[in-house]
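Re: the request from the purification team.
They wanted to know what the chain is likely to look like in 3D before they choose a buffer screen. I agreed to run a prediction and write the result into the notebook, where they can find it.
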Amino acid sequence: MIAIAAAVVIGSSGSSAPESSGPATAVVRNAKPVGGVKDVTFKKGGTVDLTVKSDTADEVHFHGYDVHKDVEKDSSVHFEFPARIDGEFTVELEGHKEEIAKVVLEP
């Protein structure tokens, strides 16, 4: 299987504006995010590229965009879609009601 990941590159002219996180991965162990809730930033107009690796079977829900994917135990799911809506969005293990990532989409 071949996976293609898209990164969003943002030019910088010395400003302190945060850059896109690019492809990101949130890891879940025992239904909890390893290292705490993963903070990820993407630019509106770019691509959201987030993988969730989990040792717990559940439904992963990307709120705001209302995208749901089932992750099997000891597996992963990949979210990749156009970043059309700016704002802050929660990614959650739906059945466990556990926030695993906070995704910020900047204008």
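For the purification team: Residues 24-106 form a domain with the Immunoglobulin-like fold (CATH 2.60.40.420).
Please add any questions underneath this entry.
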